[in-house]
Structures are given as structure tokens and as C-alpha cells.
Amino acid sequence: MRTLAPPGRRTTEIVARAEHGPYVVLTAADPGGPAPDPGQFYMLTAAERWGGGEDERPFLPRAFSVMRAHDGELDFLLEDVGPGTNRLAELTPGDELLLLGPLGRGFAPPRAGRRPILAGGGVGIAPLVVWGDVLDQPLTLLGFRDAAHAAGAVLIPDARVITDDDGFVTDLLRDELPGHVEVYACGPPPMLEAVRALAADNGVPAQLAMESGMACGYGACFGCVVPTKTGYVRLCVDGPVVEADDLDHVWRPDAAGRHQNAGLDAPRR
After folding, report:
1. pLDDT value of residue 175
2. CB 223: neighbour CB atoms within 10 A?
3. pTM for this prediction
């Protein structure tokens, strides 16, 4: 089961904007929209100046996991890493945002009384925020590239935090395995691959919130197809949360040493 999006895009208004280091949290009023499931996502578009180049060709919508949903409002976490996120990061209260969602399949509850462990990397902490709000005393582990980005940890106050200067979030996770736990993770592909491998080696289930380039969000364009052990799936309808055990890999270098991803190709832009 999943929460289904109303048909078509709807116009919402930005009601708040906050900055945490290089991250921006946008809050959009969506009083008529359904409450999303943790792990679902939305396709976002700025209502004005959504395009680039000499002829102002429109950008594709950008997919963002919902970070929180409360009182008819939605929070989204983003980092300015390209033209699309740059335009979204410019939005301020009173500006209009077009959104489609909630979309995809979110997280499933822990099985057999297992203790939930949330592992997030960078902007990938977003879906873990809303999931942590509804779980019973999860252990949350967060990794960031540096101290400036670690300012985002304020969004999950009780989390254990590490930066690349001291190690990786998977180093924290390794210390908690094995055990009667279930892991929930979202972050860059190398991190998700490390989580997948750790979970497999320790015989614990893991659910990975993966990302991929999306043009439509509802399965029509096949732009977000990723391989699993039983065939290809579209992350926008069959994910974005995928069972780690269903994957042979999330990320690995090819023969030339370049990186091949089963999910995210680059940060959301």
C-alpha cells in the first residue's frame, strides 16, 4: 500500500525558508494534499523562471524526498549544486512552487521487533527525518563531508554524527552490527553500496532509499530504471525504497575504473 498523489501538478506557496550550513529547507503549504508516507517523494518545479539557456528552455522537474509533513505543510531539504537546485534555493516565502506527489513507495516498518537504525549521508538525511519521527527510539547515524555540512545534523538532534575528516557513517554502522536490527539508509551511491554490503555480511535486513534521474515521476519515461536480482525496476513507482537484498550492487567501478551506479548518478540538481 502507498499514499497516492492527486492527478496533475498543484500550485503551492512557500511559507518558510531556513538555512543550515549549505542546506536549505523549504516549507510549502499543501493543505489539500494527502499526507505522504515516509520515504515518498515529490517532483518540484519553481512556478516562475524555471528554465535556462539563451532561449530559457524549461528545466525538468526535480525529485525530492519529503523531509517532514505537518499541519498541511511539507518540508524539503536541498543543496544548491546546479541550475535546478539553485533556482529552488532562491525561493522565499510568498513564492509559488508547483509540485506533484506524493509518489513512489516508502519505508516499511521493522520486521520481527528489530530495532531500527537510520543511516544518512549528506542531503540524503531528508527521508530519515520524517521516518525517525514515527519510529520508536531509532538509532540515527549521520555522515557529512565536512563541519559546514554537518550543520544539517540539527534536523535530527539526537543523531550520532561523523564527518569525512574522521571517517564515514558506515564506520558508525559497523559498530552496531550484527544485532537484532533493521537498517534504513539514504545517501550517495558509494555509501549505499557500503550499507548494502555490511547488511549482507551481518545477515540483517536493510531498506535503501535510492535516487535516479527522473523526468516524470510516475513510470512513463523509464528514466529511473535500475537493475535488481530479478530484473529492472523503476524507482519512481517500484521504489525509491528498495530492499538491499534485492540488489547485487548499488555502486561499483567499471573496467576502466569509472563509477557505475544502480541508482543516483549525481546529486540532485
Report:
1. 95
2. 16
3. 0.92
